[in-house]
Amino acid sequence: MTFARSLLAVSALALLSVPAMAGDAAKGKDVAKLCIACHSVTDAKNKVGPSLVGIVGRPIASVADYKYSDNLKEYAATAGAWDDAKLDSYIENPKKDVPKGKMAFGGVKDATKRADLIAYLATLK
Ligand code: HEC
User: pLDDT band at 60, cuts 50/70/90?
Assistant: First the structure.
């Protein structure tokens, strides 16, 4: 039946059009509570970790007065700047891309929470 077939096609399209990384920044602000013990989200000050203001799009390991691990600096040499995909991977498991880095954090395992968090990080200017 053509009607059933076009219905199927329409629902398949609807599924495909859901963007994988459409995070909710308002919810992400809540997830960021996991980060603020070590990172400022309001100004350029460093804490245990460097400020996260402007992090999306920022070159990796680029805060001049912060002492990064050698391993994060090596990662920066090949990876360049923080985009959504690199942040997603690092936040899921900081030891995956930077095994000898010094971010002592287990990671956010829930992909939706990471997408929300990254949407929130993108608002930090
Ligand atoms: C226990 C402290 C701690 C927690 C909690 C923590 N971080 Fe970090 N973070 C660090 C440290 C330390 C570094 C520096 C890593 C290095 O030099 O290897 C870092 C580095 C980073 C960087 C790289 C910054 C740059 O300038 O390249 C990002 C991005 C980051 N953290 C995001 C997060 C996010 C998002 C969270 C919350 C989900 C979080 N961190 C939780 C300590 C922490």
Answer: very high
Q: Which of 33, 105, 109, 110 to mutate to test the pocket of ligand 1 (most atoms within 8 A of CB)?
A: 105
| Centre of ligand 1 from the C-alpha of residue 9, in Å | 44
Provide the CA 95 distance to its chain's centre, in angstroms: 14
Rg (CA), the chain: 18
Both tokens of 5, joined, read 């077939």
12-33 in b/e burial notation, b at 16+ Cβ within 10 A? Answer: eeeeeeeeeeebbbebbbebbe
Instruction: State the closest ligand 1 atom to the C-alpha of 37, by its place in the atom list counted from 1.
Output: 5
101 CA distance to ligand 1 centroid (A)? 9
Q: What percentage of residues in the chain have a pLDDT greater than 90?
A: 82
Cα–Cα distance, 66 to 51 (Å, whole number): 9
Burial class (CB in 10 A: 0-12, 13-18, 19+), 75: buried
Residue 8, pLDDT > 60, answer no
